[in-house]
Write the structure tokens for this entry.
Amino acid sequence: MASFRPMFHFGENEIKGNAQRFATRDEAEGSASERFQNWTMVRTFSVEESSEPVNYCWTKERGDFHL
């Protein structure tokens, strides 16, 4: 089963992710968008598919939480 991970773009060639994996692209985008609003160094964000297991969930009401 695929998972989705937020990726953060700090510069032209600097893209970083973390260990969070979400069940849906929408969850990963919601998490990334929320985090993006709080960081000053990040230029933009994206989401990429991963083969790693889902370990986080995101909702508008609760934000990120570990499963």
Notes: The CA atoms of residues 37 and 44 lie 10 Å apart. Strands lie at 3-11, 14-17, 44-50, 56-59, 63-66. Residues 3-66 form one domain. The two ends are 16 Å apart (CA to CA).
